[in-house]
Amino acid sequence: MVIPVDDFNSDEIERYFRVCTVDPGRRDVFNSYHGNDDIRRLTTSEYYNAGGSPKRMQNVDKRKIRTGLEEIETNISTLKTTNREHFIRHIQYIITNLDAFFTFYSFRVAELNWKNWRGRQQALDEEAAHDR
Fold first, then answer.
1. CB 47 within 8 A of CB 123
2. β-strand partners of 43
3. pLDDT tens digits, residue range 4-61?
4. Strand pairing partners for 33?
5. Considering the entire predicted model, what is its pTM?
6. Is the dihedral of CA 44, 122, 57, 108 positive or negative?
7. φ and ψ of 9, to 5 deg
8. DSSP secondary structure, 44-67, as one string
9. What is the pLDDT of residues 58-73, one digit of tens each?
């Protein structure tokens, strides 16, 4: 069903709708303007904290240190090179440490990534419900 805007007059819009504009900003997940001085924001920090991401990421970082993967990842050379020898060394380093990557980035990490994503979606849902 499509209802054209010109089917409503300004009184009906004022009475039945809550018109707002939304700006996905750089620092905030979103800003919404509802007229006058009614501006609402969801900061990036609030977004991640509401979903529980920082705590899960701290646990992942601790596990990387415990398993030695943090040092392996720190020592990965850049792929941004035109030097063939640097590129080959990069590939050799990755292949040499492939077992460590596969061991760490198992289905358990996939589950954590899913929980992080789901937590962020719930944070957005809760903030949207709060603004209604």
1. yes
2. 28
3. 777 778 787 777 766 555 555 566 655 666 667 766 666 666 666 666 667 777 888 8
4. 21, 39
5. 0.48
6. negative
7. -95, 170
8. HHHHHHHHTHHHHHHHHHHHHHHH
9. 888 898 999 999 999 9
